[in-house]
Amino acid sequence: MIHVMRKTSANIRTATKEASHERIVDAAARAIRRSGYNGTGVADIMKEAGLTHGAFYAHFESREAMLAEAADRAGADANALAANITATVPPEQALQALVQVYLSKEHLAAIETGCPISALGSEMPRQSPEVRSAATRRIKEMIDLIARQMPDWGQPSAHERALVTVATMVGTLTLARAVNDAALSDALCAATLNQLTSPKV
Predict the structure, then answer these.
(1) How many other C-beta atoms are found inside a 10 Å radius of the C-beta of residue 167?
(2) What are the residues whose beta carbons fall under 8 Å from the beta carbon of 139, sequence distance 6 or more?
(3) Residue 199 DSSP one-character state
(4) d(Cα 162, Cα 148) in Å, to the nearest integer?
(5) Phi, psi angle pair for 101, to nearest 5°
(6) Between these two residues, 10 and 140, which has the higher pLDDT value?
(7) How many CA atoms lie within 13 A of 183 on its CB side?
(8) Could you tell me the fold of the domain covering 2-197?
């Protein structure tokens, strides 16, 4: 009986720690997109997660380890959303639907919960290998997801067009967020949407 009680207590502690860890990573994933890697402090993340600063090292060996998990989580969430979009429309409409959602006003305004590549891309060269590896893995997933929407998926041409499509989408969103001219921001998104989704002659 005592053994069972100890095992139950250990399971509860493990589940509690896992739930706390998830809250920290979720808070960090939002924070890096909102404030950038350098603007994301451990104390603020722990406060947002509802935990004490001192509890941090029970979950992570370092700030870089937390940032790497945050980058991974942000990328995973963005890719899951993109995959969900493709699953809810006919295959021939999937690419257009993805581009439309990516370049929408809603996504433009949702920097804290949106695509981490457009929010953090310019900061990546100065991050640790651990953080860059996590982000790179998710970028590759995004490219692969786009490639699978191409009619010639599986061919080198589909992968190449996916590379161009992702680079164009990310670059457009980055520029559209950078400018303080709403008309220019709208024009950037509209032009890219037109170029990426119009039938090619």
Answers:
(1) 12
(2) 75, 117, 166
(3) P
(4) 9
(5) -70, -40
(6) 140
(7) 0
(8) Tetracycline Repressor; domain 2 (1.10.357)
Q: Can you say how many angstroms the Cα of residue 197 is from the centroid of all Cα atoms in its chain?
A: 23
Write the single-letter amino acid at 102. Answer: Y
Task: Report pLDDT for 201.
Answer: 42
Rounded Cα distance between 94 and 139, Å, is 19
pTM: 0.86
Say what the pLDDT of residue 9 is: 55
Give the whole-angstrom CA distance, residue 179 versus residue 188.
Answer: 10
pLDDT tens column, 82-117? 999 999 999 999 999 999 999 999 999 999 999 999
Three-point CA angle 140, 161, 172, nearest 5°: 75
- State CA 58 to chain mean position distance: 25
pLDDT tens for 139-174 read 999 999 999 999 898 889 999 999 999 999 999 999
Report the candidate in 110, 131, 123 with the shortest Cα–Cα distance to residue 177: 110
Q: What is the pLDDT of residue 53?
A: 84
Cα separation of 151 and 175, whole Å? Answer: 29
Task: Note the maximum CA span of the chain.
Answer: 75
Q: For tokens 């699978």, name the residue.
A: 148
> Can you tell me the distance from the alpha carbon of 20 to that of 49, in angstroms, rounded to the nearest whole number?
8
Measured at the CA of 138, the angle between CA 132 and CA 142, to 5 degrees, comes to 135
